[in-house]
């Protein structure tokens, strides 16, 4: 729902559906000791390590309590698919086409697609997947709570930093009884970021998206922006909107050394963003443009991924680009 649309995911999801494509909620979890004989359920590609009630508070302040760890989770946002993949669980339902990528659930995963516009998902599709937990994006899918909770509890997540994404992964571990696996992946990703931060580049970077006349920036109050701030000079504060609109003239005032560009639009024009801006003289005068350091990146991963797998892919690109 990035500006000038309401949020980046709205734009990217619409485009991908058309053919292209915290801290996190604080965990207040209780779980009795593990029962090796416990069966996880058809949504899990491993077994749950805990039984009994679990609870967590989501990013809207709503407490989600389950009688036992969830094994059948419907994902209305990609960070859900991302985190579940990290702990070895396949969602029973998905809405983002990125979920079918080999880095996540994969093209052969047995999942039901949830149809409908972003924030207006088909609740029947959710119900038919028979989940015991539904996970969505706060600020976008809040209005579904009443209808969704006729089927299963709804947990809403809204990560504003890479640390929030790590915290959400741990919460997923709590809610699914796989905290050990979640901690292992969370600790590994944190260690990777810390190692990259120790060799922080002095280059000024920018993550931007959109189309000419409708550009936006990932501020430091987004998972991608906060990650870039760890490993480079990233002078893009949030202001009133973590996904802020920006003009080429504003970019020129900072004049970044490296630009990571995500191209998407409301039109049929799918040319790279740098090519669509090439005739703008201000754009042509940017240091990153003159030095051929505008890197076109995958909008789905950068804009909708949000989880540690996605941020790892972002970091792969950033390190490859900034490595002298």
UniProtKB/TrEMBL annotation:
Residues 1-22 form the signal peptide. Residues 27-60 are annotated as: Disordered. Keywords: Signal, Transport. InterPro entries: ABC_transptr_periplasmic_BD (IPR002491), Bact_iron-sidero_bind (IPR051313). Residues 27-57 have a biased composition (Low complexity). It is found in: Cell envelope. Its main location: other. It holds the Pfam family Peripla_BP_2. Residues 72-324 form the Fe/B12 periplasmic-binding domain. PANTHER family: IRON III DICITRATE-BINDING PERIPLASMIC PROTEIN (PTHR30532), IRON(3+)-HYDROXAMATE-BINDING PROTEIN FHUD (PTHR30532:SF1). Belongs to the bacterial solute-binding protein 8 family. This is ABC transporter substrate-binding protein.
């Amino acid at each position: 729902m990035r500006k000038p649309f309401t949020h980046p995911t709205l734009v990217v999801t619409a485009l991908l559906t058309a053919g292209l494509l915290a801290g996190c909620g604080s965990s207040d979890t209780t779980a009795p000791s593990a029962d090796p004989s416990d069966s996880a359920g058809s949504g899990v590609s491993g077994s749950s390590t805990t039984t009994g009630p679990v609870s967590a508070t989501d990013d809207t302040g709503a407490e989600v309590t389950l009688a036992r760890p969830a094994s059948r989770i419907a994902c209305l946002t990609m960070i859900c698919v991302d985190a579940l993949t990290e702990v070895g669980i396949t969602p029973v339902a998905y809405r983002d086409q990125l979920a079918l990528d080999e880095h996540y659930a994969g093209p052969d995963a047995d999942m039901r697609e949830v149809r409908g516009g972003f924030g207006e998902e088909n609740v029947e599709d959710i119900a038919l997947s028979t989940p015991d937990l539904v996970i969505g994006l706060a600020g976008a899918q809040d209005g579904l709570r009443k209808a969704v909770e006729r089927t299963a509890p709804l947990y809403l997540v809204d990560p504003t930093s890479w640390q929030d994404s790590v915290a959400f992964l741990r919460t997923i571990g709590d809610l699914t009884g796989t905290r050990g696996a979640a901690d292992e992946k969370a600790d590994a990703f944190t260690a990777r970021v810390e190692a990259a931060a120790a060799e922080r580049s002095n280059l000024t970077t920018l993550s931007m998206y959109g189309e000419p006349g409708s550009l936006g920036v990932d501020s430091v109050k987004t998972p991608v922006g906060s990650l870039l701030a760890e490993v480079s000079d990233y002078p893009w504060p949030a202001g009133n909107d973590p996904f802020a609109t920006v003009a080429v003239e504003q970019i020129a005032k900072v004049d970044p050394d490296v630009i990571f560009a995500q191209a998407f639009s409301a039109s049929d024009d799918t040319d790279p963003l740098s090519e669509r801006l090439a005739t703008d003289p201000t754009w042509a005068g940017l240091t990153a443009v003159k030095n051929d350091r505008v890197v076109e990146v995958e909008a789905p991963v950068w804009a909708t991924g949000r989880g540690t797998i996605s941020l790892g892919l972002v970091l792969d690109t950033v390190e490859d680009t900034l490595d002298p």
